[in-house]
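Retro notes (design track)

What went well: tokenization of the new backbones is finally stable.
What didn't: we kept losing track of which sequence belonged to which structure.
Fix going forward: every design gets posted as structure first, then sequence, in one message. First example under the new rule, 416 residues:
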């Protein structure tokens, strides 16, 4: 019997293996040497080294073998790349809780397993014209208070990536309403509008969407908003899910290598620090800090929805608590994702619970069989879940808004 192997998935497996060993090399030669003061220590243990390799290859082949849902495969691969690989390396070289990497393995395997579950649900659909009107009306309504706040008093140096932190400090004390509307627009509504308009070939709508995102970027100088435009467009123009992931991780590997060569040849290490340390290793390191600090000191959402019923034991929010404890600064808001959030609130049970909820969330989007050209929006959502508390991701960062848009606006195309 001839074994048929998808060439893109095979390429992805090889590339992810290379990325894993390259990041391991960068950790030992760059992260540890320059950022040990942050907690990036290095302690080699042969047993842990073998354990991480076995777990890496087991999960990689498990989630890559047979995947009926290309959407679930793509989501899983991004989580594997940005959460699992860095966590394995951190566990390998830093004393940390083994439950972190095994809970991530559980999450990836569970998400992959839902790919074999076929569920059909009937949800309301509206016409294309109604979709355009609804998105535009909501976008304009939400833009009104933001425009009233900033008008055209903008620092256009932000477009040159100058004065970023000055602008951000000036806008740091926004009203709660402005913060919600900004996140909903920048992370969900406008990216959906851009992808939708490109799919439907509405040029004016595309120009409007890109212009609004640029305005939002200049107004508050959040680099994630600017790169969100690039991500949405990148994944839009590559239609096949397998191709999207293959091109993305190959490009990422090339960028890794380029930034490391830049560090080695010129001593300019900021690009490598921002991309590899900040994006990959800091969230993994923060997981170890949250597990260490909140072990047997769970707060049961007393800082959040249960604050009227339970006593919160600290004077500042949890990210500031971690910032003070491990970085000697409350200003260091050590926000982290659903794994840390689950443990901080409910311990080991919370990690499993939040993992299941995230799996259910992406399975719901999978059931809708959305057009693959919307994938850039889900890429942004993955990063939201990696870097923010679960309930915060749902409410503040707009995942609940995305669910509504997916039901009423986005589910008009077959998955590709």
């Amino acid at each position: 019997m001839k074994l048929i192997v998808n060439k893109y998935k095979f390429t992805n497996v090889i590339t992810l293996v290379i990325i894993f060993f390259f990041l391991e090399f960068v950790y030992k030669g760059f992260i540890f040497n320059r950022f040990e003061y942050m907690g990036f220590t290095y302690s080699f243990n042969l047993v842990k080294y073998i354990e991480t390799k076995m777990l890496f290859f087991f999960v990689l082949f498990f989630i890559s073998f047979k995947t009926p849902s290309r959407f679930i495969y793509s989501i899983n691969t991004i989580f594997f790349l940005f959460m699992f690989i860095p966590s394995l390396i951190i566990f390998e070289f830093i004393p940390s809780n083994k439950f972190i990497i095994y809970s991530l393995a559980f999450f990836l395997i569970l998400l992959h397993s839902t790919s074999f579950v076929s569920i059909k649900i009937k949800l309301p659909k509206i016409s294309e014209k109604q979709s355009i009107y609804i998105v535009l009306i909501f976008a304009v309504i939400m833009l009104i208070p933001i425009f009233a706040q900033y008008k055209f008093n903008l620092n256009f140096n932000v477009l040159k990536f100058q004065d970023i932190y000055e602008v951000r400090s000036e806008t740091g004390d926004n009203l709660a309403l402005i913060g919600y509307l900004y996140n909903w627009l920048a992370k969900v509504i406008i990216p959906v509008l851009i992808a939708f308009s490109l799919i439907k070939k509405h040029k004016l709508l595309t120009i409007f969407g890109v212009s609004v995102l640029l305005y939002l970027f200049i107004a508050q100088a959040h680099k994630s908003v600017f790169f969100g435009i690039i991500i949405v467009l990148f994944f839009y123009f590559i239609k096949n899910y397998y191709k999207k992931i293959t091109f993305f991780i190959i490009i990422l590997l090339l960028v890794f290598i380029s930034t490391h060569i830049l560090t080695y040849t010129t001593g300019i290490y900021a690009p490598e620090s921002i991309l590899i340390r900040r994006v990959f290793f800091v969230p993994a390191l923060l997981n170890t800090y949250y597990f260490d600090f909140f072990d047997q000191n769970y707060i049961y959402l007393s800082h959040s929805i249960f604050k009227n019923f339970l006593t919160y034991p600290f004077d500042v929010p949890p990210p500031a608590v971690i910032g003070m404890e491990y970085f000697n600064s409350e200003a260091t808001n050590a926000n982290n994702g659903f794994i840390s959030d689950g443990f901080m609130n409910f311990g080991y049970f919370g990690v499993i619970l939040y993992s299941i909820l995230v799996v259910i969330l992406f399975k719901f989007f999978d059931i809708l069989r959305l057009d693959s050209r919307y994938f850039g929006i889900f890429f942004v959502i993955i990063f939201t879940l990696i870097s923010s508390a679960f309930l915060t991701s749902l409410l503040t960062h707009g995942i609940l808004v995305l669910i509504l848009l997916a039901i009423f606006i986005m589910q008009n195309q077959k998955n590709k």
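Added context from the reviewer: The chain has a mean pLDDT of 89.
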